[in-house]
Amino acid sequence: MTIIPNSMEGRDIAYQMHPNVNLRKYEKTGGVVIESGDGIYVFDNNGKRYIEGLAGLWSVAVGFGEKRLVEVARAQMEKLPYYHTFAYKTHGPSIELAEMLIQMAPVPMSKVHFTSSGSEANDLACKMVWYRSNALGNKDKKKVIGRIKGYHGVTIAAGSITGLPRNHESFDLPLDRMVHTSCPSYVHFGQENESEADFTTRMLTDLEDLIIREGPETVAAFWGEPVMGAGGVLMPPEGYWEGVQKILRKYDILLVVDEVICGFGRTGNMFACQTYGIEPDVLILSKQISSSYMPLSAILMNDRFYQPIADESDRIGVFGHGFTASGHPVATAVGLENLKIIQERDLVGNAARLEEQFLSRLAELAKHPVAHSSRGVGLLGALEIKPFDDAKAGDAALTVTAALEKEGVIARAVGEAICFCPPLIITSEQIDDMFDALERALDAVAAARA
Ligand code: PMP
User: Fold this and answer.
1) Does residue 27 lie in a domain region?
2) Are residues 239 and 130 part of one domain?
3) Which is it for strands 282-285 and 254-258: parallel, antiparallel or unpaired?
4) How many domains does the chain have?
5) What percent of the chain has pLDDT over 70?
6) Distance, CA 277 to ligand 1 centroid (Å)?
7) Which ligand 1 atom is at minimum distance from the Cα of 150?
8) Secondary structure class of 202 (helix, strand, coil)
9) Whether pLDDT at 207 is above 80
């Protein structure tokens, strides 16, 4: 396809450097210009309609074009478009959202601190872990354990806790305080003749061995997503979270749970901590907190985490951290209204009710000759594709997602998996539309290779 220089696509190539692309390839191919959205759909500048099978970036819970959020943002912009939360000032939207989050939290939490992205929230939570260790006089207890294939963002600390080579290579990451334990995905890392229970035991042994090798007195925190998202929708094996928490308690290691994707209904419960029985010290939230209509994230922390930090700020004279946009009034007002919509429309219940259909359709499609297996929880799922046997044929999952895009569905290929995470407002009929299109895409790929 030739790209006309003064078209939107041509100007995009000329001026914008995009995240998460091969920059040289982008210079040649450009991107699809998405122009508008409505419900579960987005439309490109040629008027083509797509089901947003990933809810943008796993985030637009209430769908595109929710007028209540537009109205709340407009009203807040008129009343107080900006104010900060520094220097002993505060404002209504941040107070109300903080109160609501503490009331909703899956375990007793003490305080909320606002940031604007998942990366910022994880990065700051990591700084707070270090600050807290210093406050307690544990100057050597600073190491953080992440997991291979875990994703917590791309800033320096968060990117270091992330366990994906592409986010480390040539960025000089990870920092040497960050170590990574095994990825608990049974389908990917289970050994031949190893039962799921044995696999869980091996994952837990790996974790405990790592802690002992590093020295428990040097390990401050463990970081994990209940279900790994960007790593490819990787499910925790039976008994994993229970076992992890036992080990962390044994060695006095904090548990930071990153529910940036899972939070606010994705797994069929308000929080995945409820789905998997997890009791975090720190809970990281973003994405569906505002359906991504405004950049917003939140760090929820329990008293055991907060109190030493407050003491340390008192000793120093100030908690020396904060962003211009911390608790931004328009973002927090939109977040508050978005959570009210999630509750009033029972979108968490919608995810729970549609889970069976969503997962069983994926499981049916896993029988397709091109496919390997399926997995998921709530409205978060993946179809694993069989790799093409000849390297020249390219990447199998990318080939299927390209065919799927032709069929009018946007999904995300990660490794050999095609990930689905549709808006929580999706209906039963729309799930069928989405997976009917996937079936046509799988057929097209199979036919092209026959
Ligand atoms: N944590 C998780 C679990 C995520 O999925 C993401 C984003 N996909 C992040 C953190 C980083 O969020 P952001 O892109 O807003 O920095």
Assistant:
1) no
2) yes
3) parallel
4) 2
5) 100
6) 22
7) 3
8) helix
9) yes
CA distance 376 to 233: 7
Q: What is the CA(152)–ligand 1 centre distance, in A?
A: 5
Q: Tell me the CATH number at 359.
A: 3.90.1150.10
- Long-range contacts, stretch 309-315, CB < 8 angstroms, 24+ apart: 309/128, 309/131, 309/132, 309/135, 311/135, 312/131, 312/132, 312/134, 312/135, 315/135
Nearest-10 Cα torsion for 427, 226, 259, 410:
-40
| pLDDT value for 436 | 98
> Where does ligand 1 bind, in terms of residues with CB under 6 Å?
57, 117-119, 122, 151-153, 225, 229-230, 258, 260-261, 286
Q: What is the pLDDT of residues 374-427, one digit of tens each?
A: 999 999 999 999 999 887 777 999 999 999 999 999 999 999 999 999 999 999
* Averaged pLDDT, 202-224: 98
In the reported structure, the alpha carbon of residue 229 is separated from the centroid of ligand 1 by a whole-number distance in angstroms of 9
* Residue 81 in tokens: 């478009």
**What's the CA-to-centroid distance between 51 and ligand 1, angstroms?**
22
Question: In ligand 1, which atom is closest to the CA atom of 57?
Answer: 8
Task: Please give the Cα distance from 248 to 223 (Å, whole number).
Answer: 11
Number of other residues whose CB lies within 10 A of the CB of residue 346: 13
DSSP state of 449: H
pTM: 0.98
Q: Are residues 435 and 340 in the same domain?
A: no
Full strand arrangement of the beta sheet holding 41-44: 34-38, 41-44, 49-52, 409-410
217-253 pLDDT, tens digit per residue, is 999 999 999 999 999 999 999 999 999 999 999 999 9
Cα(330) to centroid of ligand 1, in Å? 21
What 3 state SS string does 32-81 have?
CCEEEEEECEEEECCCCEEEECCHHHHCCCCCECCHHHHHHHHHHHHHCC
Do 118 and 46 have their domain in common? no
Same domain, yes or no: 110 and 202: yes
Mean pLDDT, the chain, rounded, equals 97
> Where in the sequence is the domain holding 355, given as residue range(s)?
32-62+346-449
Pocket probe mutation, ligand 1, options 58, 114, 161, 260, max atoms within 8 Å of Cβ: 260
Residue nearest to atom 12 of ligand 1 (CA): 118
Question: Is 14 domain-assigned?
Answer: no
* ipTM associated with this complex: 0.99
Give the total residue count for the chain. 450
Per residue in 79-138, pLDDT (tens digit) is 999 999 999 999 999 999 999 999 999 999 999 999 999 999 999 999 999 999 999 999
Give the residue from 295, 329, 344 where a domain finishes. Answer: 344
CATH code of the domain containing 154:
3.40.640.10
Output the CA 373–ligand 1 centroid distance in Å: 26
